[in-house]
Amino acid sequence: MTQSHKKSSLIGVRFLPEEKKKLQELASEQHQTLSELIRANTLNQMARRRKFVPEVNRKLYLELSKISEYLQTIEMNSEDLRELQELLKQVRSELIGLEPISKKHDG
Question: In this entry, which stretches build a coiled coil (predicted)?
Fold first, then answer.
């Protein structure tokens, strides 16, 4: 590790004993140190929150919402309609970088 890449900054974080135990168990399961686990998860969370969402995705998100609302007025009891609405929700969520709502249509 080069001098410029040495980890030299320390951040103190306090956990309850049971929280620390859970983190240690998870780190062990993933063959990581406690520091590696916390660092990786913290940086991953930051990356997810700062995800850029193009304006076209935001506009499409709103348009798909309107389509979904319109579909509700057509035939409320149709199973096909419910599946289509669920699919629209998934597409809308993915457009703006949210976690997938459901894995129902993955297979």
Answer: 67-94
With contact defined as beta carbons under 8 Å apart, do 63 and 50 qualify?
Answer: no
Domain ranges in the chain are 16-49, 55-95
Question: How far is 76 from 61, CA to CA, in rounded Å?
Answer: 22
**CA Rg value for the chain:** 21
Separation in Å, CA 101 to CA 40, 55, 84, 88, 98: 24, 22, 14, 11, 8
DSSP string covering 89-100, please?
Answer: HHHHHHHTTPPP
pLDDT per residue as tens digits for the range 21-60: 999 999 999 999 999 999 988 888 776 666 677 788 778 8
